[in-house]
Design goal:
Blueprint: E1 27-33, E2 39-46, E3 58-64, E4 68-69, E5 75-84, E6 106-110, H1 114-119, H2 121-131, H3 134-144, E7 161-164, E8 171-174, H4 177-184, H5 187-227
Antiparallel strand pairs: 1-2, 2-3, 3-5, 4-5, 5-6, 7-8
């Protein structure tokens, strides 16, 4: 689960009992215990009316059912999300592992109402098709990779939650800026940003080296032409 193992909860918090929850849903679910000994819930949502411009029709969420307790005592859930199409080709790596899009995950944090996740179709739709929209997730992850975001709020990999909008009386996407800032400043996220900056710098230096090598090659060709 990526970074799930790095920051264990500081207090014992019971996992949500997904086995005994009644399921009347738009999603298919599967619960299991991971190699880390924690319980996970895998949810798959298929959108039969997905816009072809999105290039995916299925969203898969894998969420740890034991909450992470932040320093402020607020709770978030660590999860990962993948986006793919039902008709995607399946690709296998050199060791036989499935490397197709259905297994290309992005690590996120969010707040969750498990009862609604398992029983409320409208909640599921807004969650899987709205909060977890691929471009939205990418936008928040991109913001989380900036030390001081120029647009949006600091967020780390926190993407918000779904709840009733008090103004409209309907479910909507909600982002808590205080939690976003807290997650943004977690040691884990600081380390991720440092690594990201190192990778960008390495790519920059590699590009510069390639440009310099190409310049030297062209200068050599020009010199050889002048000698003829």
């Amino acid at each position: 689960m990526g970074f799930f193992d790095r920051f264990k909860k500081k207090e014992e918090v019971p996992a949500y009992d997904v086995q005994n929850a009644k399921q009347e849903s738009l999603i298919t679910t599967h619960s299991y215990r991971g190699k880390d000994g924690l319980d996970y819930l895998e949810c798959e949502y298929y959108d039969s009316q997905a816009d072809f411009k999105k290039f995916y029709d299925t969203t898969k969420l894998v969420i740890c059912t034991i909450p992470e307790i932040l320093p402020s005592r607020k709770r978030v859930y660590q999860a990962k999300v993948a986006h793919y199409s039902q008709n995607d080709a399946v690709y296998f790596g050199k060791d036989g592992e499935d490397i197709s899009r259905r297994n290309q995950y992005t690590d996120i944090r969010l707040e969750m109402n498990f009862e609604k996740l398992l029983t409320d179709p409208e909640y599921q739709k807004i969650l899987m098709n709205g909060l977890l929209d691929k471009k939205r997730v990418e936008r928040y992850i991109g913001t989380g990779l900036q030390d001081y975001p120029t647009e949006g709020h600091p967020c780390g990999n926190y993407i918000g939650f779904v709840d009733i909008n008090q103004r409209t009386g309907k479910y909507g996407k909600i982002f808590d800026p205080k939690i976003g800032e807290e997650v943004h400043n977690l040691p884990e996220m600081v380390q991720i940003r440092e690594k990201y900056k190192q990778i960008k710098e390495q790519a920059k230096q590699s590009k510069i080296a390639n440009l310099e090598a190409e310049r030297d090659r062209l200068n050599k060709l020009i010199a050889e032409e002048k000698e003829k």
